[in-house]
Amino acid sequence: xxxxxxxxxAAGTSLRLEQRAKLSSYLGLSLKNGFLNLLTxxxxxFWGKTEVRRRIxxxxxxxxxxxxxxxxxxxxxxxxxxxxxxxxVFLLFVFGIQFLGPFAVLLILPLYVGLIGLIGFAIYAAFRxxxxxxxxxxxxxxxxxxxxxxxxxxFGLMILTGVTLGWAWPFVERKLAEPxxxxxxxGDRPFRFSLVAARKENVYGAFTLMWLGGIxxxxxxxxxxxxxxxxxxxxxxxxxxxxxxxxxVALLFGLLFLLISLPYRAAMxxxxxxxxQFEGVKVRLKIGALAVGWLYLGxxxxxxxxxxxxxxxxQARSARFILNRLxxxxxxxxxxxxxxxxxxxxxxxxxxxxxxxxxx
Length: 360
What we know:
The chain is α+β, with helices and mostly antiparallel strands. The protein is built from twelve helices and twelve strands.
C-alpha cells in the first residue's frame, strides 16, 4: 500500500485510571480524626475532611500521574460559618413571622418549599468547589454555569417527581447529572454529557421492580402497624416488646427496599457514566447490583461497628470501588490543553455540609 494511503495515527494518549489507596492506612487517620473531633466538639472535621480528600486524590492515578487536591480546611470552615449565618437568619425570620397569626402560613409555606431549590443550589456549589480544588499535571478543573439556575432546575424536577408519583425519577436523575458534567472543564477544554448515550443503558426495568416493591412493602408495613395499633391492649410505652417490634419491622422493610433497589442503583450509575465524554473519550462503568450491595453492606457495618469513627475508611473504600471500575475509551492530546484562568470559589461547600450532602 502506498505510504500516502496509510491512515495517520491518531494524536493523543490512551487513558488508564487507577485508585491505589491502601485501605489499612485509613485506620489510623480515622482514629485521629475521630479523637480530634471529640476534643474540638467536631470543629476539626473541616481539616479532617481535607486530609481525607488529599489522600484519596493523591492515590488516584491517571496514566501513572496522581491527582492533586488543593483545598484547605479553613475554606471549609468559612463556608460553614456562612451557612450557619444564613440558617440563623432563616430561623429568626420564621420565628418572627409567627406573630402574624393566620397569615404566617402564607410566608412560611413558600419558604419551606423553596428549601428544595436550595438543596440543588448546594449540590452545584459543592461540586464547583471540589472541581476547582482538583488538579492533574498542574492543570485545574472547574465548573462553569450557575448554581442558582441548577437550584431552579432541581426544584422543578423534584416537583415533577412528586406529580408522577416517582415514575419520572430516572429521567430526573439523568437531567440533574447533565449540567454537572456538561459544565465541567479541565483546563480550557470542556466535558460533554450525552443524554442519548446515557439512555442506551436500560434503567426502567430495574426501576419498575424497585417502585412496585416499595409500594407493596409499604402496604404490608402499614397493615402490620394498623393491626398492632388496633389491638385493645396496645401500649407501646408500657410494652417495650411491642415498641421494638414495630421498629424491627420498619428496619426490615428498609433493608428489603434497599435490596430491591440495588439493580436500579447500579444501572443508573452505569447510565450516568456512559453519558460522560471528554475530547472524544467515552466512559464506561463496569458495575453490577451484587457488587454495589457488598459495598453498601460493608460500609454500613464499618460505620455501625465503629460508631462513625471509620468514615474516612468508608469514603476511601467507596472511591476505590468506583474508580477502579471505570474504563476510559479513547485518546486525549494533553499537550493541547492549557490552564484556565478560572480559580473557583474562595470558600468551601458549607451549605451542602449543612444539608448533609457532602459525600467526601
